[in-house]
Amino acid sequence: MLELTEFQQDAVAELLNIGMGKAAASLSEMVKQKVDLSIPSVEIMLRHLAVDHIRDTVGNEVTAVKETFKGTFWGDAFLLFPESQSLELVRALLQEDGLPLDMLSEMEQEALTEVGNIILNACLGSLANIFEQSFHCDLPRYAQGACDIIFNRNLVAARSADAVLLVRMNFSLKANNVNGLLTLMMDVESMQALTDLINTTFGMID
């Protein structure tokens, strides 16, 4: 199995941290409150274990926004919330506590897809800028349901291997008790392309 050096892991985490920091600032303006971020973690693991880790973090029933990105390296970027918290995020975005539940539900998909679009593009844009690369990103897709089903249906990046690179970063809006998870999942070929870029960009030699 491909392994990342400590330097490569730190590089991926720091690059994602920069992008997520920008995205968190945008989200903070939208919800008028501080957005707390965790330190990103970067691990290579078997695909089913990656899904287990995600389920342990956000629960089995999730709301997800996914973007597939393609370029020198490629993969799937997911923004995930516990399904039970997604309406709270919509309330925070709309700044309207009194809206009826049916109206919130109607706005849920559009609002969360927009949030996902902002956050995922900020992170991918940060990677593209640092590496001086361009990505083609599919339109963000919204899904809701069991974690296993969402990932088994949508994990198009894992085309040829059981191992994936799982990048995780948690964020939270304490005032609304909302916690989310950003993940990037890439297959072995994409991981190799990413490590080559890191080595080239930062002058590292294998």
From TrEMBL:
Superkingdom of this protein's organism: Bacteria
InterPro entries associated with the record: CheC, CheC-like_sf, CheZ_family_phosphatases
Membrane spanning stretches: none
Statement: the UniProt record of this protein carries the keyword Hydrolase: yes
Keyword GTP-binding: no
Span of domain CheC-like protein: 7-43
Keywords: Chemotaxis, Hydrolase
Protein name (Swiss-Prot/TrEMBL): Chemotaxis protein CheC
